[in-house]
């Protein structure tokens, strides 16, 4: 009887050990899969040359082989348009040579979808030698953009002789119940909108007044400003004392406009009078 109990215990232990054996992890061994590491759309402002949600908008680690090189830290020339990079990563081996990857545009012909060769141009798409991150290098044009519209370019990664696309979905968050999202599709949204900086209401508004793209466009043209470095989007943001010259200049421009035209300058709605911030009217 005792031997039978021992035998049953040994059999049960063997069963438990076998049932607890881990399943092999899915490692995509011997495959080189490409995917978009950023799962959400990328937003690019062609006027301020800023990439929202994923700064910075340039990557010196992915030089374009088809773009004239400039002697600056970014390695790009902006003479012929705005250039942005959609990062693409490889899950697999690293090689000592450049590897192009395949892609295609989707949703062509739909409203608000840009036209390749007119609104944007793909300069290159590859994984550089000795690296696991490359990108789709895109040049954007602003001729068909204004303060009231935006355009999309929708990309899908494809397999070729260098890469597969078997790593196609990932959880949208760390939770195992979160929905699956594609790692092979990316939407690039580009616009000429001027967006208010983060500290507008706290630091800018007392000097420049309520936010409007028309007002900022006037300041940029009147003073020859670069909004990315001079005042609007620079970091750290300017304080009120540093902003005062811009507010005074705006007030002077508005006064000269009214003298020349016999009426105030109005915002885009044609009703609201454009004004500088309350601080500058105390001088």
Tell me what the structure shows:
By secondary structure, the protein is α+β, with helices and mostly antiparallel strands. The strands form 3 sheets. It has a 5-stranded antiparallel β-sheet with strand order 1-4-8-7-5, with no helix packed on it. It is elongated, with a radius of gyration of 28 Å. The chain has 4 helices and 12 strands, in the order H-E-E-E-E-E-E-E-E-E-E-E-E-H-H-H. The chain folds into 2 domains: 33-191, Sandwich (Immunoglobulin-like); 200-282, no CATH class.
Low-confidence stretches: 21-26, 52-80
Shape: elongated
Give the helices and strands as they follow along the chain: HEEEEEEEEEEEEHHH
Using the coordinates above, name the CATH class of the largest domain: Mainly Beta
| Percent in helix | 10-25%
- Please state the structural category: alpha+beta
CATH domain topology of the largest domain: Immunoglobulin-like
Q: What is the total domain count?
A: 2
Strand content: 15-25%
**End-to-end Cα distance:** 105 Å
The total of beta strands comes to: 12
Order of strands across the main sheet: 1-4-8-7-5
Mean pLDDT: 75
What profile does the largest beta sheet have?
5 strands, antiparallel
Number of helices: 4
Explain the layout of strands and helices.
Elements: H1 2-19, E1 33-35, E2 42-45, E3 50-52, E4 82-91, E5 99-100, E6 102-106, E7 120-127, E8 133-140, E9 150-158, E10 169-171, E11 180-182, E12 185-191, H2 200-208, H3 213-223, H4 240-261
Parallel strand pairs: 2-12
Antiparallel strand pairs: 1-4, 2-3, 4-8, 5-7, 6-9, 7-8, 9-12, 10-11
Helix pairs in contact: 2-4, 3-4
